[in-house]
Write a structure and sequence with these properties.
Helices cover 54% and strands 20% of the residues. It is of the alpha+beta class. Strands 1, 2, 3, 4, 5 and 6 form a six-stranded antiparallel β-sheet that branches. A hairpin with a 5-residue loop joins strand 5 and strand 6. Helix 2 packs across helix 4 and helix 2 packs across helix 5.
Amino acid sequence: MTDQALRDEQPIPPEIDRWNWGAFLLNWIWGIGNQTFIALLVFIPFFGILIMPFVLGAKGSKWAWRNGRWDSVAHFKRVQRLWAIWGVVIWLAMIGLFGAIIGGTALLLKNSDAYKLSVAKLQASPEAANLLGTPISTGLPSGSINVSGQSGSANLSFSVTGPKAAGVIFVEAVKKYDVWTLQSLKLKLEGQDQVIDLLQQTRADAGGARLSAYDAVSFE
């Protein structure tokens, strides 16, 4: 009878028959380190990602005990505790890195000329002031900005809040000859399906002002 067959027949010590956090958090990495290659099933689409980590967490200690060579139960528990600690450390580092990337991207977008121009236009819009009330506060933007030399484009969105209502602003802007110009500035209020084009309203107000000035000159 082979050594593996002998180990398979040995009873599992009850003190190690418990949830294995190292196997759950590090799955395939833990599997290679503990000669438990069934952990590589995590690479099967859907099943591997959604189910296999929980199977490893529940069964990992049994498999690792039978597949490895351990001096004692204490030795096994010490090694598995280290795997669990490294699993927590790595996951916390990944979450921190992901948060830093998201926060850094939002900060870069907030400091962009396209975002600042859209906020300035929003604050100066009589229609936005009428719908949202004043003062208007804005949230962190999301979206994308692509720049190549003196040209570029931006597609952003950010939340807006005023005393009367709240909503979301959608921005489209282009950069030509190193100058940003808004192409679209639209407001969608919470609880409403209508989308208000704030730039169109600004153009209409400007056109009306020019027409009134022309009438006044003609009258004189």
